[in-house]
Every structure is written in C-alpha cells, then in structure tokens.
Amino acid sequence: MVDLAVVILAFNEEMHIGRAIESVHPFANEIFVIDSYSTDRTTEIAEAAGAIVLRNRFVNQSKQFEWALANAPMSSTWIMRLDADEIVESDLAARIQEQLPLLSSDVVGVNLNRKHVFMGRWIRHGGRYPLVLLRIWRRGYGRIEQRWMDEHVIVWGGRTVAFEGGFSDINLNDLTSFTNKHNNYATREAIDVLTRKYLLGPLDERLSPKSASKQAVLKRQNKERIYNRLPFWLGPLLYFTYRYTIQLGFLDGRPGLIYHLLQGFWYRFLVGAKIEEFELRLNKCSSTDERLAELERLTGYRIG
User: Fold this and answer.
1) 206, exposed or middle or buried, with CB in 10 Å at 0-12, 13-18, 19+?
2) FRET label pair with 155: which of 6, 82, 89, 176, CA 20 to 30 Å apart?
3) CATH 3.90.550.10 in the chain, residues?
4) For the structural domain made of 2-170, what CATH number should be given?
5) What is the pLDDT along the chain (304 residues), one digit of tens a residue?
6) Which of 179, 184, 177, 134 is nearest to 159 (CA)?
7) Rounded distance, CA 42 to CA 138, Å?
8) Contact predicate 295/187, CB 8 Å
9) What's the pLDDT score for residue 206?
10) For residues 84, 13, 304 and 154, what is the CA-based torsion angle, rounded to 10 degrees?
C-alpha cells in the first residue's frame, strides 16, 4: 500500500463504482466515495468493495470535491482524484506503487495521461490523447478550482512530475446517458461563462503552468481568449473540423465519428445556444442581483 487516499465522486454509478475501486485497491491506503444520494446500488457496492462512503448534496464537481477534502477523514500524504467511470490500469498502478514513495519533498503533484474509450474503441486522435491531467497531489499543497465546469486540480509550493501508464475513462452507459450527461454539462458550462462575464460570483484565476499541466493551461487560454469570442455557431463548426481533419479524428473509425461529432460539435453548439438563450433574459435585468436570480431560475442551480 502507498500513503495515498483516492477520492471518487459518485451518483448512480452502480455500473462503474466497483470497477473503479478495484483498480486502485493494489496501491491505495484509503478510498473514499462521496455519494450524492444515489438511488441505485452505488453505495452498497462501494462499501462492499472496501471504500468509506460519505454523502453530500451535489451542487457541482468543484464544490463536491472541496467538501470531500474538508470532511473525509483522510490521513494519507497523497491524494488522488478518480472519476467513477475511470480506471487505473495495472502498469500505472505498479508505477504509483514503486515511484510515488520515492518522490522528493519538492514534488507536490503528478500528471497522468488519460485515454478515452468510447463505444469500445480507444479514441486516439482528434486531440483526445493524451489528455494530461494533474490527478495526484501532496495533501496540503493542492485544491480543486472553483468553477462550474472544466475544473482542474491546482497545486503550489513545489514542482510536478509525470507518470506514464494506463489511465482510462471507460463509460459503459449508452448514448442516451451520454447526451443527457452532456446536456447537464452544457448548462453548467453556460453558468460558468455567464457568471464570469457578468461578475456574478468570485473568479478563480490561479491556473498556471506551475499549478497544473501545461496542456490544461494552453487549452484554457485558447478557449477563453479565442473560442469564446467567436460567434456561437462558428466556434463548434471550426472546432469539429479541426479535430476531425487536422488532428486526424477520422482515423478513429465509426465510434470516432460519433464521438467527435457529438462531443466536438453538438456539445459545443449546445453550450453556445444555452449561453445565447440565457443571455437574452439576463440582458433584460437591471442589476447584478437580478441577473444572478434570473440565471438561477433559468438553470435550476443555486449559484450565489
């Protein structure tokens, strides 16, 4: 066992939660599942697999993880963030076991290369591999960005390193689940864009090459400085075309076509359309408080 705590956020993940826990059992000293009051067998499976289950009402990923860091009775030196539909493969598990205890005290974070499996196929192109994510950090030297969408782990007080090995997002649900999930993501991303544009809440601006992966920082900069300034209908078209042709997404076959079109065009278009819809209402408001109340009414989320 490594002096490491794994934190998994879950809601109705009975299909995935046992697999995720099993993948970290070889090395994790502590495993915590933060459940958003699932109505299926998620908590039963998690407890049977040896995880400690805590329950908290879900607002967004950032707030849920912040709650976990403040309330889970963890004692480990290192913390790892793992999504319920992700797994750590055996080669990465072995590397964590062997190398994490040997890291010098000036190392505060570890980047991992995530791969995405969609409809049974590893999506290798379209800029989707590797996705470099900082997912392991030294306790007391990291936190989760407070954003409504696209939140990252950020660290301070030292340097980061990278571990090679299999780290996979393999969601077993169907396309109906995929589109429903991304519809919810689109609402939360629209909230993130509009709260920042209209200053409806505090802004978290600490993502930098020293605090997260360089890839994550570059993607954030391109998105906020270029993509978000394009007409909402043009951005998705250019982004999908770039992913599918220049970044060779067409090499991912039929599953790749479905994935890149849904995630790279349809989802991005949906986000833009929701921003347009919500902003039409917000522009009729005369104050920040009115805009905040209206955005909460439109989205069903408590934002303030």
Assistant:
1) middle
2) 89
3) 2-170
4) 3.90.550.10
5) 899 999 999 999 999 999 999 999 999 999 999 999 999 999 999 999 999 999 999 999 999 999 999 999 999 999 999 999 999 999 999 999 999 999 999 999 999 999 999 999 999 999 999 999 999 999 999 999 999 999 999 999 999 999 999 999 999 999 999 999 999 999 999 999 999 999 998 878 677 888 888 899 899 899 989 999 999 999 999 999 999 999 999 999 999 999 999 999 999 999 999 999 999 999 999 999 999 999 999 999 999 7
6) 134
7) 28
8) no
9) 72
10) 0
- Amino acid at residue number 208: S
At 178, list the tokens.
């995929």
Size of the chain in residues:
304
